Amino acid sequence: QVQLVESGGGMVQPGGSLKLSCVASGFTFRTTPMSWVRQGPGKGPEWVSTIDLVGNTGYGASVKGRFTISRDNARNMLWLQMNSLKPEDTALYYCARGSRAVVIDDRSYWGQGIQVTVSA
């Protein structure tokens, strides 16, 4: 069955960095666009980033210039490098299989999520 397992979350001070990882299995990773979605406390889902099959990337306005998405198709791995973190980046972060339009409204495409907390 499809599995998306995130790791690398935690607590960090404002201005700090974290790198999230996602191991994917149960589907053909190399032919699937992959995304990150987050949900902050009391907020709806927010699209963070997507990477397509050949490495083209897109980012939400709130993270552009600070976050970098990457993938390794040989290892079925997805990453999100997060720099210059802000308190408003605090959220559950989900690895998701599919493009922005697919993942933003359908949790069945998401992993179990991992907490990122940015606080002094």
Write a concise keyword list for the protein shown above:
single chain, 120 residues, mainly beta, 4-stranded antiparallel sheet, 10 strands, globular
What does this structure look like?
The chain is mainly beta. Helix content is 3%, strand content 47%. The chain contains 1 helix and 10 strands, in the order E-E-E-E-E-E-E-E-E-H-E. The chain has a 6-stranded mixed sheet.
How many strand elements? 10
Q: How many alpha or pi helices?
A: 1
Low-confidence stretches: none
Q: From the helix content, strand content and strand pairing, which structural class follows? A: mainly beta
Rg on CA atoms, Å: 13 Å
Please state the average pLDDT score: 97
Q: Main sheet, how many strands, which sense, barrel?
A: 6 strands, mixed
Task: Please outline what is shown here.
By secondary structure, this protein is mainly beta.
SSE layout and pairings?
Elements: E1 3-7, E2 10-12, E3 18-25, E4 34-39, E5 45-51, E6 57-59, E7 67-72, E8 77-82, E9 91-97, H1 100-103, E10 114-118
Parallel strand pairs: 2-10
Antiparallel strand pairs: 1-3, 3-8, 4-5, 4-9, 5-6, 7-8, 9-10
